[in-house]
Design goal:
- This is Helix-turn-helix domain-containing protein.
- InterPro entries: DNA-bd_dom_put_sf, HTH_17, SinI_DNA-bd.
- Pfam families: HTH_17.
- The chain is an alpha/beta fold and 181 residues long.
- It folds into two domains: 56 residues, Orthogonal Bundle (Arc Repressor Mutant, subunit A), CATH 1.10.10; 110 residues, Rossmann fold.
- Helices cover 40% and strands 22% of the residues.
- The strands form two sheets. A six-stranded mixed beta sheet has the order 5-4-6-7-9-8, sandwiched between helices. Strands 1-3-2 form a three-stranded antiparallel beta sheet.
- Strand 6, helix 6 and strand 7 form a beta-alpha-beta unit.
- The longest helix is centred in the C-terminal third of the chain and has 13 residues.
- The protein starts with 5 loop residues before the first strand and ends with a helix.
């Protein structure tokens, strides 16, 4: 867990390679969330807001500000199951990125370096396996989620295969144990 909760305008400027007055303009124009300290009125930018700002503007997030890489990218159709999965991921304290498009899925993996990926479309498992293997992805948790009764459960070829909703508790347990690691 990171130590800092907020940054000064000077620190943000240094991370972005701009003058601190530019950061003040971003705050004044509503591009960057901040609050003023009592007394002198100096601005402080919450780290989470700054990281969101960097992600929204396709700027790199410095390692020391990253929340530990607890991001999960989900490739799923928009349905009740994917909604339940998303809810579980967020309750476990993970950041979630969802897409229906396999190409965008690969893009999200390369841009965000997630700690985990999950798919609800088993036909894309081999493609995702290739992306993970060929990319510079550290120990990534790979989860394939199918409907009840479909497919084998357990660990196979580096993938955790789960049936939804039958294995929902195991899914949550995997996320919480990986977050503690």
């Amino acid at each position: 867990m990171r130590e800092k909760q907020a940054l000064t305008t000077g620190e943000v400027a240094k991370y972005c390679g701009v003058n601190f007055r530019t950061v003040i303009r971003w705050i004044e124009r509503g591009h960057l969330d901040a609050y003023k300290l009592p007394g002198r009125g100096d601005n402080r930018i919450p780290v989470e807001s700054f990281v969101d700002f960097l992600n929204n503007n396709n700027m790199p997030v410095p390692e020391e500000l990253d929340s530990g890489g607890h991001k999960l990218v989900l490739l799923a159709d928009v349905d009740e199951v994917s909604t339940e999965i998303a809810s579980c991921v967020r309750r476990a304290g993970w950041d979630l990125l969802v897409t229906q498009d396999p190409v965008h899925f690969g893009f999200l993996i390369s841009q965000n370096q997630p700690a985990a990926v999950a798919i609800t479309r088993p036909e894309f498992e081999e493609s995702v396996r290739r992306i993970v293997r060929e990319g510079d992805h550290k120990e990534m948790l790979c989860i394939s989620i199918t409907g009840s009764g479909e497919g084998a459960q357990g660990l196979k070829d580096g993938w955790l295969h789960l049936r939804w909703p039958h294995d929902q508790q195991q899914f949550i347990l995997q996320l919480t144990s990986n977050q503690a690691a």
